[in-house]
Amino acid sequence: MSTPSMDSFFRTLNLKMEPQLQSHMKNVYSCVALSTLSAAFGAFIHIFTGILSGGFLSAIGSFGCMMALMSTRDDGKNTTTRLGLLLGFAFLSGLGLGPLLEAVISVDPAIIPTAFFATCLIFTCFSLASVFGDQRRFIYLGGTLMSLLSVLMIGGILNIFMGSYILFKAQIYIGLLVMCAFIVYDTQVIMEKRRMGEKDYIWHSICLFIDLIQVFRYLLVILTDKESNKKKK
Known about the structure:
The chain has about 230 residues and is an all-alpha fold. About 85% of the residues lie in helices and about 0% in strands. α2 (about 20-50) packs antiparallel against α8 and α4 (about 80-95) runs parallel beside α9 (about 200-230).
């Protein structure tokens, strides 16, 4: 038996999202979930087997899968092929996380599940904020967010030579906030594109998967840095 709060939730959801959009977002999030499992398998392969390892080649491979998916237009008959490319991209992305995960394990293995569950919570909260908020409020943030990403990238390159811990801390915390904002932005863009007739849920899911994995990456670095500082004291 549903509670009044759950009934209110679904009534509000029905007001915010028409049936076609609800079905589309369900497909998008299903693909994100499958991609997350594929990425986890890739990370497992790197850490626990010697079959494959993350590095430059996995990065090139993931980029190649994404480009292949982008160039393979959805015609209604190639869904299996395109889903395979998505999962291949996710697998290689997870494989690429392997070296970072190894470094985290050397500090404290418990950081990984903590970061994962925190990532899921953040992703869920910001997705719901996007769905139930002003439907077009955050769409105009795209330029600002891309500018912030460019600044973070330039700062990261400069910090290779400067070696500033303060700049490093600023980068990881600002980067986490930017990626959280991207979850809201990308969700609203996907919803708006579907309302305009675009039904490619596989390509739409890759944007949210990238946001998810970047949030996870930032949380891993932040939690590992905190744990390392504790052990030094």
